[in-house]
Amino acid sequence: MATNDRAFNYDLDYRTLNLREQPELYRVGKGEMGVLLVRPYKDEILPYWRFKTPEIARESSEKIYQLFLDYKQNGDFIGMDMARKFLQMGYTRSRRYANHKTGQKYDGAVPDDKKGQSGAHGREQLPREEDPIKAESARIFYGKYLEAREDEDYKKLKKEWQLKYG
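^ Cytoplasmic protein, sequence as received from the core. Prediction below:
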């Protein structure tokens, strides 16, 4: 996969790579790119990522936001960015389940030649069935995601990171 300087690099061997030890290899990418790959951060944050009920979502989002603050205190931009990505993913996944009970947005399997690409690829979107419980979970995660995304130190460090590493 060809990548530009700002894209998340999916060509690295994330199973063996520790980006705390080799931070220069990290790329922010867009949105949630790489959220389930980047170690050791994935391993530190994923155990707390839950959204089944608003109570679980509140506890999860507060814990992940606290990790964001801990990474911030340690000057660890990658950790901050990964915590922000998990908060964003908490919002997007909760929202998906709020809209679609099964979590599936589209009908049918992804054709082999379209796997790994985003979008429906010609499949029909399933009807929405609003689930107010998951919608509340999404709202909770979204609030914490905005706190992280709009944190002045985070924005400053992100800009510096992108200037330094691309």
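The mean pLDDT is 85.
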